[in-house]
Amino acid sequence: MADRDESQKKIEEYRACIDSLDEQIVDLLNKRAEQSLAIRELKPSAQMGLYDPRREEEILERLDTLNDGPMYGDDLREIYRTILKVMKEIRA
To answer: What pLDDT score does 1 carry?
Structure first.
């Protein structure tokens, strides 16, 4: 019974940590969206198209160098492809 209680307590601690990390992720994603919108506003005056596939590939390649695991690179790329898609579609 003591092992079970201890395991449940540790699970609660991990979940609290995950909740805190989720809060930080939401905050960071919103900050990223603000930066993306600022760039989008400047692109026409810089005579740049709104979509830059080369920049997206640069981002994904950079993530590969930052990733020390335990996530697999393909999984991280999938998450970021979704983030980049949403950032392109976000409304000001």
So the answer is: 77
| Model confidence at 92: pLDDT above 90 | no
Give the number of residues written for the chain.
Answer: 92
Tell me, yes or no, if the pTM score tops 0.85. Answer: yes
Q: Which two tokens stand for residue 50?
A: 């709104």
Q: What is the pLDDT of residue 50?
A: 87
Q: Which residues contact 60 (CB under 8 A, 6 or more apart)?
A: 77, 80, 81
Tokens standing for 75? 């999984």
| Average pLDDT of the segment spanning 12-40 | 97
DSSP letters spanning 52-83: -HHHHHHHHHHHHHH--SSS-HHHHHHHHHHH
Tally the C-alpha atoms within 13 A of residue 71's C-alpha that lie toward its C-beta.
13
CB contact at 8 A, 86 and 31: no
DSSP state of 50: S
Locate tokens 């390649």: which residue? Answer: 61
